[in-house]
């Protein structure tokens, strides 16, 4: 058996053409799916027995880090360059993807088109998605009632997961599967569910926000002439144009981070059992709620508040270093720094920093974050225990939300979840289009693993 050498692929090699002129996304996919099915079929026929990697004992005990075991089309994470969405870096997406009139940040609708088709969409195609999501956005009465009846002390992510699960009552895939539709058509009803779910998520998330923090008052409505992020901000009760631009950026850069992270992998895994997109995505959101995943941006802010209380708003570098060393010597980590895959500053951190430099350069919390960015990496390198001393996306996102008045840290992971739907549901459509089977890796006991190593 031959082994495939996985080399770094340049962005030039990965560039894809502009999408065709149709504004009907499902029509575009109907043309692409058969072509991709044939391409994958031919590849598997000629290279199905080719090895792509080896598994070590450390990988098995260490959370399967580095094991190549998933197919994930929307994005790939490069240790040096960071995330690429269908071959496009974040700066490239910021440049190429359509924007709202007068806006500077890419519209998430455009990123979704890119993630699910591989093509850069036109302005007309993005506008069509905005209109389609607005038309699909209404929530079933039983979901609204359930959210309104939940006690305010239930965590927003628990409410979010519960509401998504309840939306399963609307599943087109469940209906199609029950009617005996051929498996080659599974992707079509999964697509419909995914489009409906993405359209409804801002309404679910905004209802949770207004109920939990604003006594259920002031929930805005959907304007069919506006984009997805504008409508989300309006429902949340925010009308600051800069906040809306931030939300467009936030929902774009948090959308996907290849398939091995907990929320993406869980959605894929549950979907592989032919659970519908609502149940699959709800499972993914339960994973996102963990402190080692989506809850991390909240932990960064908690740490920054402790830092601020100890050293003030304008500490010397020496005071900052003393606090950081104290944190590390107590057995804690500096939250927001380091990443399981990345070995440089997360480009999602960088684009948020650039947004802050443009819109809030004098904000005291942003200045503190910038100082931490200067001081922490050399300290982490000095410990000799950290492979990546650079900040990830969580080190910055909460600071921006705080500046624009969204102070409720427990809610931040819900925003992350709304964004993550774009990537994981785009991938779920392709899982069914390619007929990927139920996921069932082989496990071993420690005794059997020791025996296998001795052999």
From TrEMBL:
<comment type="similarity">
    <text>Belongs to the citrate synthase family.</text>
</comment>
<dbReference type="GO" id="GO:0036440">
    <property type="term" value="F:citrate synthase activity"/>
</dbReference>
<dbReference type="InterPro" id="IPR036969">
    <property type="entry name" value="Citrate_synthase_sf"/>
</dbReference>
<keyword id="KW-0808">Transferase</keyword>
<dbReference type="GO" id="GO:0006101">
    <property type="term" value="P:citrate metabolic process"/>
</dbReference>
<dbReference type="InterPro" id="IPR002020">
    <property type="entry name" value="Citrate_synthase"/>
</dbReference>
<keyword id="KW-0816">Tricarboxylic acid cycle</keyword>
<protein>
    <recommendedName>
        <fullName>Citrate synthase</fullName>
    </recommendedName>
</protein>
<feature type="active site">
    <location>
        <position position="339"/>
    </location>
</feature>
<dbReference type="GO" id="GO:0005759">
    <property type="term" value="C:mitochondrial matrix"/>
</dbReference>
<comment type="pathway">
    <text>Carbohydrate metabolism; tricarboxylic acid cycle; isocitrate from oxaloacetate: step 1/2.</text>
</comment>
<dbReference type="GO" id="GO:0005975">
    <property type="term" value="P:carbohydrate metabolic process"/>
</dbReference>
<dbReference type="InterPro" id="IPR016142">
    <property type="entry name" value="Citrate_synth-like_lrg_a-sub"/>
</dbReference>
<feature type="active site">
    <location>
        <position position="394"/>
    </location>
</feature>
<comment type="subunit">
    <text>Homodimer.</text>
</comment>
<dbReference type="InterPro" id="IPR016143">
    <property type="entry name" value="Citrate_synth-like_sm_a-sub"/>
</dbReference>
<dbReference type="InterPro" id="IPR019810">
    <property type="entry name" value="Citrate_synthase_AS"/>
</dbReference>
<dbReference type="Pfam" id="PF00285">
    <property type="entry name" value="Citrate_synt"/>
</dbReference>
<dbReference type="InterPro" id="IPR010109">
    <property type="entry name" value="Citrate_synthase_euk"/>
</dbReference>
<feature type="active site">
    <location>
        <position position="293"/>
    </location>
</feature>
<dbReference type="GO" id="GO:0006099">
    <property type="term" value="P:tricarboxylic acid cycle"/>
</dbReference>
